[in-house]
Amino acid sequence: xxLKRTLLASTIFMTxxxxxxxxxxxxxxxxxxxxxxxxxxxxxxxxxxxFSNGAAGSITGGWQNDGLTLKIxxxxxxxxxxxxxxxxxxxxxxxxxxxxxxxxxxxxTASGNTPGANENDVLxxxxxxxxxxxxxxxxxxxQTLYGHDVTFSGNDLNPLGDLTNEQFGFAFTNIxxxxxxxxxxTSYTATASFDSSAVVPEPATVLLLSSGFLAxxxxxxKTLAPASK
Length: 229
Prior knowledge:
Shape: globular
Number of strands: 13
Strand order of the largest sheet: 2-3-6-9-10-11-12-13
Number of domains: 2
Distance between the termini: 18 Å
């Protein structure tokens, strides 16, 4: 009896371990949405960063022109001439390092020139608890603006279920700086490209978990069934 219990416990452990390992192996990183830089140069920026107020700064962002193609590979869709707006954010400003902002959201909507959608249709919403601004180095090096505790929502994403605790980032280019009389940078504008991703289980994972558990229960019932008299 002791040996049977030991073997049964080992079977339980190995079965659950195998299911867990398979589930982890079947989780893949999907690109949720992306767009290339729609601007022709620094004269048409997507973002403005201001840190002239000492310890606090602000970040504003948006695009209201044609030229932005929003691709949503997760939903196998693409939209041309999309607009986006972002909540005005405040952030802490210790010079250098990363700077955390307040939470907010970014909303992508169809314009009057977006084929296959009505004007002002909401295509994608990206909500976040905070953004981190990668401070620039010397010269006009590109910077990053990336989100933490991110949630994606939109009709094209419904098949993927709950998309929370994900990530996204903007890569800044065409940075145009403003200086004060002492030569210190007080603000800058930038164009940007966008990329976002989420770790999503493959559809086969759910089936694997279900079939593996049912097989385990079936074996367990046979093991515990009393012998026929």
